[in-house]
Amino acid sequence: MLIVVTGGSGSGKSEYAESLVMRLAAGPKLYIATMYPFDEESHRRIARHRLMRKDKGFDTLECYTDLKHADVRAYDTVLLECMSNLIANEMYQEDGAGERSAEEILAGVEQVYGQCRNLIIVTNEIFSDGIDYDPETARYQRCLGNINRHLARTADLLVEVVYSIPLVHKGKTPWDEVSV
Amino acid sequence: MILVTGGCFQGKKDYAFETFQIARKDAADGADCAMEAIFEVKLLYHFHEYIRRMLQTGQEIDLEKLQQENPDIVLVTNELGYGVVPVDQFDREYREKTGRVCCEIAKRAKEVHRVVCGIGTVIKRA
Questions:
Q1: Torsion angle defined by CA atoms of residues B5, B8, B9 and B11, in that order, rounded to the nearest 10 degrees
Q2: Residue A167 forms contact with B (CB below 8 Å)
Q3: Total of domains in chain B
Q4: Is-cis flag, bond preceding B8, omega within 30?
């Protein structure tokens, strides 16, 4: 299954995505971490996420760019967290894909999903604050928006998490989530 | 507890007053009410502003106490976090905190309603 989990910042989407992995996995689980630890705040965020999945039996693969070459063959279920960081890395890091970020990332997703049974991708809603950003930030928003739409088109399940409550926009879960 | 959330200017407050049949005099505005009001009123709106004030004064919301002393309160809050990461550190903290507090309230709440264009959808009913 290919699953996309989206939501705002602090909405509980990571916790929900992890719970999906726990329910779906029938074998080894991998967490692909994309947040580059560039300052104290990111270290704190990473520590919080590590703590959250501590006892859930994940292996962790740090992947800041070049998802295409991630080897996940040993895993049944993979959780990629999160798309918004991966895109920022590809767009702005020296070894990133720059202009070719979107296509490289989508190719990476295809590669990864070809190697495992379930891929769960956490992404982000950064599109509704009504603020007009500078052209560079707008380019980033557009890139994430495009990737989200591509992912959702092929995904079996698209879930938006609102303050810990999952709302299903596409597909069906065997669980009792709200369909919208 | 009941949580009502949604974007700004969506009619959340009117929806809540009507849906839960609460008189305006029994409500408090989270932007300027006394901090203790939350334990007494039937409805508190601008709950995100209440969280901001708590954060500004370095206080934590005691949800356990709230649930015990005012179990039927309706909290109306803006749904934050649907934008680009704010440049200002306090803004980032405030956005994050509102999210975490509302997740916790949603877990405890018997109902969560989300209002879009004035129309509410029950997204949780325990």
A1: 10
A2: yes
A3: 1
A4: no
pLDDT of residue A38: 87
Domain boundaries, position B74:
2-125
Residue range A89-108, pLDDT digits in tens: 999 999 999 999 999 999 99
Beta strand ranges found along A109-173 (DSSP E): 118-122, 157-162, 165-170
User: Nearest CA of chain B to the CA of A75: how many Å?
Assistant: 31
CB A176 within 8 A of CB A163: no
Q: Where are the alpha helices (DSSP H) in chain B?
A: 12-19, 47-56, 63-69, 89-108
Å between A128 CA and nearest CA of chain B: 5
Contact assignment for B83 to A129 by CB distance below 8 Å? yes
Residues of B in contact with A12 (CB under 8 A): 99, 103, 106
CA distance A159 to chain B (A): 13
CATH code for the part of the protein at A18-162 = 3.40.50.300
ipTM above 0.95, yes or no: no
